[in-house]
């Protein structure tokens, strides 16, 4: 695998690792798209503002070596996907753990 796919591969791995939480443990995150979008939107906005500000100020940068190259408003496409994937995986985990705990009592 070329290194430029590294970031994208990590995001894909995060989604694949948490996907069973939806179907095996019944997290019901993908089945409620409106609720999921409303839960992810604040994190998306916070991450975007933070990253855009930090990148603009030179606090950090994104390696061309590990990203595909296309950028939106100065951030790699993978970074924008990160703003969706990480909160989605966290939400899946939260819902699955809550479901397991509710059924355990």
Structural commentary:
The chain is mainly alpha-helical and 105 residues long. It has one domain (3-104). The protein contains three helices and two strands, in the order ααββα. It has helices at 6-23, 33-57, 77-104; strands at 71-72, 75-76. Strands 1-2 form a two-stranded antiparallel sheet. A hairpin with a 2-residue loop joins strand 1 (71-72) and strand 2. Helix 1 runs parallel beside helix 3 and helix 2 (33-57) crosses helix 3. The radius of gyration is 16 Å and the shape is elongated. The termini are far apart.
Q: Which blocks of ≥5 consecutive residues have pLDDT under 50?
A: none
Structural class: mainly alpha
Q: How confident is the prediction overall: mean pLDDT?
A: 94
Could you tell me how far the N terminus lies from the C terminus, measured between alpha carbons in angstroms? 46 Å
- This entry's quaternary arrangement is single chain
Tell me the β content. under 5%
- The whole-angstrom Rg is 16 Å
Largest sheet descriptor: 2 strands, antiparallel
Number of helices: 3
The share of residues in helices is: 55-70%
Order of helices and strands: HHEEH
Morphology call: elongated
Strand order of the largest sheet: 1-2
Could you tell me the number of beta strands? 2
Number of domains: 1
Keywords: Carotenoid biosynthesis, Isomerase, Membrane, Transmembrane, Transmembrane helix
Subcellular location: Membrane
GO biological process, one term: carotenoid biosynthetic process
GO cellular component, one term: membrane
